[in-house]
Every structure is written in structure tokens, then in C-alpha cells.
Amino acid sequence: MSKAPIRFTVLGPVRAWQDTDEVYLGSPQQRVVLAVLLLRQSLTVSAADLVTAVWGGAPPRSAVNQLHVYIHRLRRVLGHSARDSEQVIRSIGSGYRVETTTETLDLAAFENTVKAAHALVSSDPVQGRALFEKSLSLWQGSALADLPGSWAGAQRARLEDVRLDVLERSYRLALEAGDLDIAARIAHTVGEHPLDERFRELLMLALYQSGQQAAALDAYTEAREMLARELEIAPGPRLKQLHQRILQADQRLLPHASLTPQAVVGTTAACETPAPPTLKPQAPGQLPYRLPVFSGRQAEVRSLIAAANRARTGRGATVHCISGGAGMGKTTLAVHAAHSLAPHYPDGQLFLDMRGFDAVEMPVSPEQALRTVLEAFGVAAHQVPADLDARSALLRSVLAQRRVLLLLDNARDFRHVRSLLPASPGCLVIVTSRNHMVELVSNGAEHLRLQALSVTDARDMLTRRLGAECVERDPAATDGLIVRSGRLPLALALISATAAARSVDSLADIAAELQSVADALEVLKTAEADIDLRSVFSWSYKVLSPEAARLYRLSSLVPSTGSSVTVLAALSGCSADDVRPALEELLTAHLMDEFAPGRYVSHDLLRAYAAELLSVHESGPQRAEAFRRMLVHCLHTAYRAARVVWTALPELELTAEVLEAPVADVLSGTAALEWFAAEGGLLAQLVCIASAEPGCETLTWQLAWSVMEYLQKEGRWDEQLSTQSAALAAVCRVEDQLGRAHALRGLARSRLQTGDSAGARQLLNGALRDFGELQDLTGQARCHGNLALLSTREGDHYRALPHAHEAVRLFAAAGDRIGQANALNNLGWTLAQTGAYGEALDRCRRALRLLGETDDLVAKAATWDSIGHIQHRLGRHAEASSCYDRALKLDRQLGDKPNEAETLTRLGETLLAMKDRAGAADSWRRALAIYESLDSSAARHVTSLLAGIGETAGETART
Prior knowledge:
Distance between the termini: 54 Å
Number of strands: 13
Shape: globular
Helix content: 55-70%
């Protein structure tokens, strides 16, 4: 009868059992050897790493011999025969290995249960929390509790961080479920970790949810006084904001809280309201330019302002809808009123064109609109949730207790704007739409429906723009124009602009020309009247020079994000200097607007008319050729810009057509990033448009590839997902395997960042197969690197290791020295997370030697940071500090604030280990200053590290 396998525990004292009998494991040093093997979980550990773990950086000469003695003794006590002992601790080359499973090692069971909980919690939070609690029950005190030395201390700290993260997640799930009994457990955790703000926050929330508002406020006061006394700092932003919300008795802090009565009925169903991240201090002011000659609609303006004033005093609705047909002046009226109301909304005024009735492009999705608003208030791109409901909840949280005016222009219907409606009664929302928005109005919104201008207001509008003498010289002609324009403000504005440009004395000639145009622009008719906008537009168009007329027609091919002069030049097939005179004509005629410095676009009605003209005057091949000119220009520039900024990117095989296309000035890293910032939105839309164009499949995936790193850097995951999805659809249509491989990998990176680990892994495996069949070594290497990162993000460092090793091997085989160096650094970092510090240091030093031959400062900074981390873990604190200083110098040279903050955080840990408490505090405060503008969760982590100084100082004083 075979014996049951030996069971080991490391989540507490290091112990072993054979059936029900505990096995004596020998001296502390001998147990360290066993602990290293157990924590590596079925991976081979070199003798050098074992020596380092037992004796640190200064082992005795007899260390290797002594190690062999420890191994021999462990084998003897763990096996009843020579064969049994060999099965427990196996010799593999010059190293050793202990096979572990979830049945034989508590750490493996803990990690497996936590992983299962994370996978389950979104669909079944009750069972997810039960699994988190099950994993925590495996702990029997501090990990490796009876082991001495720096290695054991480092591992103990790492594992404790993991335990506290799981504990925090379990507590949050309990509070979301309304479990009020959890407050006592949280209070106990606060007693064990009094300066960890995470648990102070949870305690305050638990007390408030159980009806103890005063006790919750007392908990904040205690935390504030302790932080001031021990660390000389104030509470972090999350604690401060929670304190304010409890002071104001914020009902949304309660489990399953519904929206406040002031919110429009029918908004997104209640979900968890995230605590607001750290925001930029300045209030956004994004209202468009207000016309200096606004005329007509005075009664409507007064009505809208009066309704908004009633809302401010709590006697009216906070959502106002302006509806009306095309060209009715809805936007102009809304902007004019918003400027008048702006002083009453000091926390920000935002304008979003929702493109609900765009004749060329799809409407802006609620997800995109929410991201835009959140980022305007300083929410970092990577902090914006992927889920629509979560984004909407975050917006309500951000706008809570703020006075903000939100103008949502050109909305499609109620569903289009529902998720953007704030719950705060201090906010005002103005929505414009061609739709009557019945559902919005039925839920309490004020409604203002615009009709055509009265004859008097129409005449007044012409008079204000052209002067009374011109308008009154031929009253019959003026009356005819007013009738012909349908009394639409947009049509009258175009008539005025052209008359002013001609310097006419009367409107007779213009009236005669418009009278000769018989057809109406059918798509712009309304139910109320035949509105002959095509007549107005065509008259403005016919007076253009041939060059300006052609540019106007071609501009309908540009996405509604607008474009630069260089893009318009490429579209026209001429130089930027040659296109400027035509562009000036269009601006003068109000057929295009410069909505931002150097950015040009037409009103959606004018773009629709331009597209109609394009289909008449240019043949299908001519239209396709113009679009392709714009596409190859954008691809050529984006490709060059990407390789200037991200020097480790491989080369693509661009066609001669692309390489010969004109390119914008992106020779420097600064210029390249500025170009991406200006054209990023256009590039993302261009990929989606090009993906449907026959013959543009290769250009599509190459443009998606070229813009990928920029979108990744900015955290613009929605656009990253849409561009890579479009690229994948295009290449699958023509069975382009190389393009498919790149698109699969790009889409996987997007999925990874949005939390879809399973989807990312499936896509990466598909890309890996394609790159393998193509014998593309660097493509395979990058896929393995992404798979390693995926496993690391999941906390499964041992699963990451084979991929990290394979990435190094493939880059080396491909002769890609920069890629190999980056992969070696990533491998070194991963090894360090498993405690294999000797191997980790060797890999990172090899990476540094390879990078010495390159100008890749980003990779050098990352590698010096990794070496500093490893040296710290080995107890070589002076060497670690020196490495961090090198990394910081490079980060500051690059202006890389996020990585500078990470390195400052780790430097603080090293300085603290060197007994330099003041230096550690200074380093962490500098990191905190950066993080508070980038990432609230990281700021909280640094705050807890500062708290740790106070805790350590207290312990030192007692000994």
C-alpha cells in the first residue's frame, strides 16, 4: 500500500506532515533550503540560489558542502527509503527540485483558490468571496514565520502583501453585499495595520453603512492624527474624499444605493460607484466660440436661462433638451446660453459633439463620450473602466458635489446620452438633437423645440451681419432670400458670409442666383417646410475657385475629427503650400472652420453636401485614389513617428507607394509625439474606414500597427480595440497571414489591458501559430513576451517563466540585440519575483551589456531599476541605491514620470533598509507627488509605505 504524499506548509511556520505525523525538519538554515525549493513550486533551483538564500551575499567557503549536508538530511527525514527521499527532493543537473501540487503545498492551494475567485467574482460575487475566504483560511500566521535571514524576510513581505490584497478584496465584496457584521473583522485588521489607509477606508465605510456616521467620522479623525503624528503627512485623497462624502451623508455609499431624486429617471441601473481618482485641479472650460453677432432666438435664450436658474434653486429639472431640424441653430443657441450660464458652474463646462446625425460617420459611442468627459476631469486613461455601467458610475462619482455644465450636441436619442447624465443636482446638462427626445422629456427633462426663425428674426439676423443699408436697399430681394432659405439660421449665415465676401450693396443678385436652383437637399427637409439648403450651399460652392471647390469635395473623405493642412494636401495630391490658398477660401466662405489651431473641419450638413458633390464630380476610381493618398501619407508618417519614439520596434516591409508618399515632420521624439497627439483620433477612425475599402487591407493593418504603441501609451483602449479589430477583419478578408498575426497580437494587448486575460491568451496563441508558420522569430518572441506579461499580471510568475525564457531564445536566434536585451531584463524581473535572485541578476547584467551598444535609454533605465530591485532583495543596499540613481537619471532625461515614480518608490525601500528614514521619506514623497497626478491607487500604495516608516519607527523605539 503506497503512502500518502508529504504535505508542506509555508503560510505560517515551515512544517511537513507524513499522514498525521509531523516531520522534524532540522535547523533554521536547513528549513530555509526546503522553503526555497517549496516556493519555487516544481521548478529547479540552482545551488548558487540556495547558497544566496541561506547565507546572503557573503557565504562561507564551506557553503556548498554545507548545502549538500542540508539536502542529505532533508532527504533522510522526508523519505522512508532512499527511493522515497529521491522522489521528494530530486537532483536536476547542479540544482534541486521539489514537486508540489495544490494537495501537497498550502501556498499552491492558496494561489489556485485566489485565481478561481478572481475568475468567478464578476459573475457570482457571493461564491467569489467564499473562495477568497477559503484561501485566507489556509494562513496560520506570518509566512515562513520561523525562518531567519534577508531572503526569508523579503519573501515574507511579498507574501504578506498578497494576503492583504486578498483580504481587502474580500472585505470590499462583503460591504457591497451589505454584510454589516464585517466591521468587527475590519477593525481587527486596522489594529494590526493601523497605518494602512486601505483598511481605514473600509472601516469608515463599514461603520457608515451600519448607521454609525459619527463613529465613521471618528475613525477618520484617528487616522488623520496618527498620520500627522507618525509621518507628518495628511491622509491620502481617497480617505479625504470618503470623509467628505460621509459628512454629506452621501446615500450612494450605501450598498445597492439608487440614484438621487434629482437624477433623470431611467439612467443606468445602479452599480458600484467607484471612489473618484485623483483629479487635475483646474476646471475644464471647453465651450466653443460664441458668435459676437448672435441674433434672433432671444425669447428661447431667456426661456432656457430662466429654466436653468430654477434648477439651481432646486425648483426645476437639471436636464434641458433643445430639438429641431437640421440647420435650425440648435448648437449656436445652446453655446450662447451656455456661455451666459458658465459663471454659475465654476467646476467646469464641457462640450461634446455626439455626431448622432452625421451623414458620413458613426455616432460617438457612450463609452467614447464617457472617456472624454472623465479624462477632461483628470481621470488617467488607464483608470477608465472598460464596462459602460462602470464608466457611468465613475462619472457620477467624479461629478458628485461639483457644479458642472455639460453640453451634449447632436445626440441621436435618449439611449445615446443616458449614461452621461450626472446625478448631482448641482450640474446642468443641455442636450441638442434633431430627435424630439420624447423618452428624455417624459423622464423630467425640460424641452425647447426650435422652429424656423420668424421673418422678423431672420431679417434682424441679416441686418446684424450685413448692415441695414444692404438689407433694406431691395426689400423684395431680401424677402425672397428669407423665403428661399427656409428661415434657417445656418442658411442665412452662409448667405451673409458670401454677401460680405462680395461686398454687395444689396441682396438682389444673390436672390436671383438662388432662385435658379430648383432642387432641395432632400435629406435635409423637415416635416414643417421645404428647406432648400442645397440651393444655399450650391451658391456658396459655385463661387469657389476650381482648386477650393475640389478641396471642399475631397474634404468629405476626412473623418469628422478634422485634419491638418498636411493631411488635406495629401488628399489633394499637392503640397501644403499649394493647398493653403484653397483652404483660406473655404474658411472665408464658412464652408470649413478652424475649430482648433491648425485643425480644420466642416459642419456635418456641409460635409454631407460635399460628399454628394464628390459622388457627382469624381468617379469611383478618383475617389478611391484620393482616399488612398491620404491613407498612405498617414501610414508613412505614423510608421516613421512610431519608430522614432519606440526604437525597439521592428521594421515593416512598406510598399514603394507608402515610402514615396509625403511625410510630416516627425524626425525628433518630441515632434513625433506631438503629431500623434494631434492626429491620433483621425488615425484611429481612418483605420476603421480603410478596413472596409477593397485593396487597402495591407495599409489598414500596417496603420493599426503604427498607431498601436501611441494608443497603448495613452491608455486609449477603446480606440486600440476598434483599430485592431478593424485590422483583423480586413486581413482575414484577404487571408493575409502576416497581417493577421500582427492584428491578433495587437488585439490581444488591448484585451490584456482591459482585463480580458482569457481572450488575450487565446488571441496571443493564435498570433504565435501564425508567426511560427511564417518562421518570424521576432514575432514569436514578442508573443511569448506578452504571454509572460499576462501570467505575471495574474500573479502566476512560474507560468510566466517558460515564455520569458523562450522570448530570450527567439530574439537571440533572430539577431535582435535590443529585443534580446529587453527580454533578458523581463526574464530577470520575473525570476526575481520567484526568489531566484542569483539567476535574475545574471540575466539583467547580460541585458545591460547588450544595451551598452545601443541608444535605447528606456530599456537601460528599466534594466538598472531591475538590478536595483534584485540587489535590494539580496541585502546589498548600497549597490541597489546606486542602481536606482542610474535609472532615475535616465528616467528624468527621458521625461518618463511614471517610471521615475516607480523607481523612487523602490529607492525609498532601500534607503529605509539602510536606516536612512529621512531619505526614504523624501523619496516616497517625491514619488507620491508624481503619482497623485497619474494614478490614485499607486498614490495610496506610496502613502502606505510612508505609513510603514511610522510603524517601523515605533517598533524600533520599543526595542
